[in-house]
Recover the amino acids of this structure.
């Protein structure tokens, strides 16, 4: 889908493409995961993808972010592929101006992200 591309993993804080991202970076001791990014038409989505094996998709509630799953990821990544996404407007994902932080706004980017080439072997 045009405008929806995954990017390579990176360590450290958020990468700000257009100033819509967060103004913080989590501690590497508390959140020691490679950051991955998905460029959707609505904004840049952050997620982590750690481990190997059957995949577990971790979707946070409102108003939390993937940091919520840090201990679970650490525990399960030896046996499972743990994918935890930050919804737009949450965690390390972009905060697009005028974006509606309600469920009707989410299907567009979530369908693009899940159907993208973010999958790996």
């Amino acid at each position: 889908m045009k405008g929806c591309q995954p990017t390579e993993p990176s360590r450290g804080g958020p990468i700000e493409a257009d100033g819509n991202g967060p103004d913080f970076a989590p501690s590497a001791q508390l959140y020691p995961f490679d950051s991955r990014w998905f460029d959707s038409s609505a904004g840049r989505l952050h997620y982590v993808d750690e481990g190997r094996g059957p995949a577990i998709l971790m979707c946070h509630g409102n108003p939390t972010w993937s940091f919520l799953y840090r201990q679970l990821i650490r525990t399960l990544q030896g046996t499972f592929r743990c994918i935890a996404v930050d919804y737009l407007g949450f965690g390390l994902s972009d905060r697009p101006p005028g974006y509606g932080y309600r469920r009707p706004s989410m299907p567009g980017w979530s369908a693009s992200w899940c159907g993208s080439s973010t999958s790996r072997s």
In short: Residues 1-7, 11-17 have pLDDT under 50 and may be disordered. The longest strand covers residues 44-50. The chain is about 15% helix and 20% strand. The first helix runs from residue 70 to 76.
